[in-house]
Design brief:
This protein has 364 residues and is α/β, with parallel strands linked by helices. The protein folds into two domains: 13-258, Type I PLP-dependent aspartate aminotransferase-like (Major domain) (Aspartate Aminotransferase, domain 2); 260-363, Aspartate Aminotransferase, domain 1. The protein is built from twelve helices and 14 strands. The strands form four sheets. Strands 2-10-9-8-5-3-4 form a seven-stranded mixed beta sheet, with helices on both faces. It has a three-stranded antiparallel beta sheet with strand order 11-14-13, with helices on one face. Strand 13 and strand 14 form a beta hairpin. The two termini are 28 Å apart.
Amino acid sequence: MILLNPGPVNVTERVRRALQRPDICHRESEFAELLQGIRQKLLKAFVPGAEADYTAVVLTGSGTAAVEAAVLSSLPTGKRIVVINNGIYGERISAMVGVHRLGVAELKLDWGVRLDPEKLRLALRQHPEVHAVAMVHHETTTGLINPVREIAEVVDSQNRVFVLDSVSGLAGEALDIAGAHIYMVAGTAGKCIQGFPGASFVLVRKGFMERMKSYPKHSCYLHLPHYYEDQERGSIPFTPAVQVYYAFDEALNELLEEGVANRIQRYKKAATLIRKRLGAMGLKPVLPSEFQSNTITSYYLPPGLAYQTLHDRLKERGYIIYAGQGHLESKIFRVANMGALTEQDLEGFLAAFQQVLETVAVRS
């Protein structure tokens, strides 16, 4: 089955075979070596040239676990966080914050609308109790790329901490973490890194990690300083998904061999092909091209064609697309192009899509 949903993604046989490596105990030196290798490769891939300034903390859990760990670990006593919310995953961060009552009024926008950085600057000046700002890099609700560099500049100029959810962004979108002075970036193995779900991570500026050690503990399982201290000693606080880590390590090897910039360009080329061909079929994208990511495109459903019908007809032909969410559920569908997809895979999908449209037209 060809997966055109934004994670889990299709992986290479090389990554899949990594799941079959020998069973090991996570308290032995073999696992310590595996873990340290993953951490080092993450830094090499995403903060090249600044590896000494950052640390990578690896967790067992989905990307949401990494985001929640970053958010809950980022606040000293008496301080708050503000969330930039323009999609489902911004809403999810707000929900994380809301459970612990750690936030101020979120900066909420319509889905697909980017925040004006100057509005954030004004909000931070008005709320000195705000210590951190959280935002989603790639809001897959619509395929929107938020203006990370511009927001990071405002956060840095106001001496606040920027927490970025790049679960669907890392390895798919250009991101200068060190240059933008981003303190915390959450990611996952199971999207553009092309591993399996179940392993995630947070990249943290080392100086901020030292500060976080004195912050209150809002979670037992998701407290980043706990992970960091154990992982610096070659250990881990809780039982990890060892075989998934094997595959994560192999996926990182593939990423470094291909090169992050080259992978981004491969995804961009794939998205361009999809957009050109679906556009020629009369499909209308939800977002303007300048807001679109390299790895997902949202389209309005063709008149008279329900999502479930479109999904089921494509699945019969071996292709999985993705539904809209929230108030867009009955109006749009999404096509992702992250993962180990070949040009043949994409051409097959586009031919299948044309067939489905023709079949529906004939029946109507």
